[in-house]
Amino acid sequence: MSAKIEIRYPELVRQAMIGACQKLHPREELKNPVMFVVWVGSILSTAFLFHQFSGFNLQLALWLWFTCLFANFAEAMAEGRGKAHADALRKMRTATLARRLDSGQESAVIATDLKIDDCFVCEAGDIIPADGEIVEGIATVDESAITGESAPVIRESGGDRSAVTGGTRVISDRIVVRVTAEPGHSFLDRMIAMIEGARRQKTPNEIALNIVLISLTILFILVVLTLPTFAAFNERAAGQSGVVLTSLPVLLALIVCLIPTTIGGLLSAIGIAGIDRLMRRNVLATSGRAVEAAGDVDVLLLDKTGTITLGNRMATELIPAPGVNAGELADAAHFASLADETPEGRSIAVLVKEQYGMRGREVAAPHGQFIPFTAQTRMSGMDFPAPESGIPRCIRKGAAEAVKQFIEAQGGLYPKAVEDIVSDIARAGGTPLVVADGNRVLGVIRLKDIVKGGIRERFAQLRKMGVRTIMITGDNPLTAAAIAAEAGVDDFIAHAKPEDKLARIRQEQADGRLIAMIGDGTNDAPALAQADVGVAMNTGTQAAREAGNMVDLDSNPTKLIEVVEIGKQLLMTRGALTTFSIANDVAKYFAILPAMFGLLYATQVGGHGPLEKLNIMHLHSPESAILSAIVFNALIIVALIPLALRGVKYEAIGAAAVLRKNMVIYGLGGIIVPFVFIKLIDLFLVAVHLVS
Amino acid sequence: MNIHNFIELAVFFSLLIGLAPLLGRYMARVLSGESTLLSKLLAPLEMAVYRVGAIRPDEKMSWKKYFQAVLIFNVIGLVSLWILMMIQTWLPLNPMKLANVPWDLALNTAISFITNTNWQAYSGEATLSYFTQMAGLTVHNFLSAATGLAVLLALTRGLRHASIQELGNFWVDVTRSTLYIFLPLSLIMAVFLISQGVPQTLSRYATAHTLEGAEQVIPLGPVASQVAIKHLGTNGGGFFGENSAHPFENPTPLTNFTEVFGLLMIPASLVFTFGFMIGDKRHAWCLFSVMMIVLVGSFAVSWWAETQPNPVTANVLPQLEGKEVRFGVMNSVLFATATTGTSCGAVNAMHDSFMPLAGLMPLLNMMLGCIAFGGVGAGLYGMLMHVLITVFIAGLMVGRTPEYLGKKIQAWEAAWAAVAILLPNLLILLGSALSATVSAGLAGPSNSGPHGLSEILYAFSSCAANNGSAFAGLNANSVFYNLSLGAVMWVGRFGCIFAVLAIAGSLACKMTVPASPGTFPTNGLTFTLVLLGIILIVGALTFFPALCLGPIVEHGLMISGRVF
What we know:
With 692 residues, chain A is of the alpha+beta class. Helix content of chain A is 52%, strand content 17%.
């Protein structure tokens, strides 16, 4: 996706600036109560200019407007990326023609006229007009429009790779597809709606945070509005009527400085950026709620194959039976695997070549006949026609049980020592393949699951974040345990059936945990639907894609870990900016309150009253102090846009350490930073004579 | 500051820290319905109460039902107490033939005692008959404390239990806490007070002839029994107008020690009761530490301020104006800090006479919501509301939906916790602003300028936080203040209780998420500091402007020798 959509920043910024102005519409502003207060404040302070104009009041009004605009700009920036993407997708949706099949007859219809259960035909070069499931044929499909991945993928009827997506292009062959999505509800439509509608639905945490922010806003409005009465009470005693600065623009400035505008202005941008970050990793969430839930996940259910281990087992060792020459075993193993095109078979050939220096032999040379693997025999191998000496030679390799039967059927003896080797290998997490030549057992090939590099460290990080991993495998418990130990997962389910996944998810949920899983097959669908975060692979079936609440366009099972991280980052960013926003208020008080109260109880005209002592930043004048605070308040929103879009840096350390770190940066930093910058802005404003 | 002060403080705080976990454990057992040493004696009485009240002790209440019970109980109490005061002259035990209390003062006083505030716009000895004091005020001293404790219990159950609808039975909670906790402790304390010279009599006021030949009436009454629960229940409503400054209410340094200790003991122990009930003692210690830091910090500032020379009084030290000589500066400041840190509100010195910054601390204690250690029940549930907000804001920073003790804190909890914390703040600001504007309000303060403003702020803070202590100097017995402060007390109390129970009800229905390394830790140093920070910052941000125009500017003016 990122490969496909180019983001040009100057253009994005230009668009966002326009967007920022458009968002000044009251309907837009009302969506964000904190910023709505600023908006109302801007209007009131502008109106006040007609009542009492001064350069100071004008600047206050302008900076209130800037505060609104900056917040709108942040949101527009976050939306910009998604919009660019949605536009590109929408272009693909434009009316393609479909070749509908009506009882064998082809007719050309507009793609949008296709109904569920209609069938259509696609041949090389055709754009697939609608989401569907292949009912007949096999084809290579270019899905780069959706996934950004240029290599074509194979889609075929039956099995777990039968789903096709509208808007993708068939490159070769011919398929018949049954429509599975109503027009307007296709995957593409959902994607566009998701990207565009990102900010329309608030997530549960966002709602809760909004409530807290609104409460603080109401509180601070009252704090400021009650202030003139307390001031007047003192003015009467001091005999200094009107000495406290309680003009409307000053009060509005104080309100805007105190209410949490920093987080209020960036809140929706943070949410949109979170979804965007997922999108850039080619994961598509059906709702912001799902992204947020990802941060809460306690347990990850991971399929062993493809996620924890490389897809294929590899031969790693040849163990000869007692009294058998290692070279003889290697030779037989090589013969048995020569024509075996499975990855396992090839890995045996590679091992033999590397360890025993056997060159590749022509399959045809020994005139052998290849015996392929079948579910009945559970063996593969090679038969050689009887040479002059008389007996034909049968080389076999296969599961221990099968080979044992084979040997015993030919009157051979299956040695106890081999049985021991076999069980040793199984216990260590490997898969033993026994090699036999005629009625003689030659030895055992150790096939091993290769755990992906770096996955162990990944799991260790997850554990630090408080996320447990559970491996699901069809292997026997012995093998499963060994791989689990090697990969460092916390738990495993062996001999797993699809029902087991569902049962485990239900059980963990009953204990109060949140579960994430990734799946592709139709039989994963119930578990994907039950899981709190269900990531379906794009290569998966339509059923799986419907059931999950995220789709991974790369179909990379390890992606789940990144999804969790992005979810956490989203929440952390909100928390950090909220803390920062509230902590900022301390410094603003020390700027504005002495400015307002500085002259109260002054003993001589033009002198300072006792509260001037609160001016610990030694700001130049009351006007410069108030202006500096409001300028800081507006600029900090702009300054934090990159942080809001990028997210707070995420590290896999325990919650206690994360809390300590973020508290120091955003809490303590939030108290100190504004003192520094308000002072600097004050120096600047005075230097350029914007205020006296 | 001398060595005796420090020895007293060391003994005081060691006793508090040592005894709180023990009493906390006892209360946890009582309140969980377990039998204790006293069960043999009191169980028949408890059963009798249930029979008479037609209470089914095994009935479990939802949060709405629980709140209903709280409200019914308190409204009945309010109306009966109000009427009682208005007809006291026709009732027995009125040897001094005191008149009926005017309706507005009676209403204010009734609300005040029902809400555990014990704001007193009257002088007991000149206004209330023995019958009113005993059957009215003393009874409600017990019951209002029991109500606060019951609400805390409901919240605790909401946090502890998973996926249930019930929060326990209000009637049982009130009965058991009264019988097993308040009554026995009050009995012990009353007997001790009597031994120290506090009167406990129903005979009429004594008349004495002074050396100059003048006639002096010395008020008496059933004082000890009321004073005991006044402290243990963090009520603070004095038998006499001078409260614990009166020699019959607090005659000796020993009674003073006991009274300060008594008002802190149950709230401090309840933190551990909570810890036992939720099964997290470390968390209890964290909460206890935060409360202790607020209490000790505020005490230290006050004490320091009180020992600074005052140019207005020619820098004479020690400053004893408004204080009792038998207690001295340190014991007056300690009393003031403890009585405002809790929601007790008894006083043994006139806070109005403190140095501006020493007067600021009791005011700030109440503005923070009386959370160190707070009123019986109310202090801890108020603190837990701060905990929820802290967990919510800081909890997001660890990258999870905020959780507290395994319960997710979502929109409902965040909203009601915000209400519980902000409601008293709004009441203080709005009430004070109104009083500082309208003429009926302006008639109250006896000083102008910042000191007058402090008097107003103090009154509304005291009532909103259900503290009840008075700054002195404000003539609060007017229809305006009786009604406005009465309303503030009622809304401050039951608004918060509603919010707390709403949260309890919602939490009870939630699953408990097992803790993991990714869970926001609520039992370490970081949490303790963050909680303290949030309490102070939210409190300071709300009241700093008002305080600037009150005690802070007064302090600045005092240094330059100007007073109001």
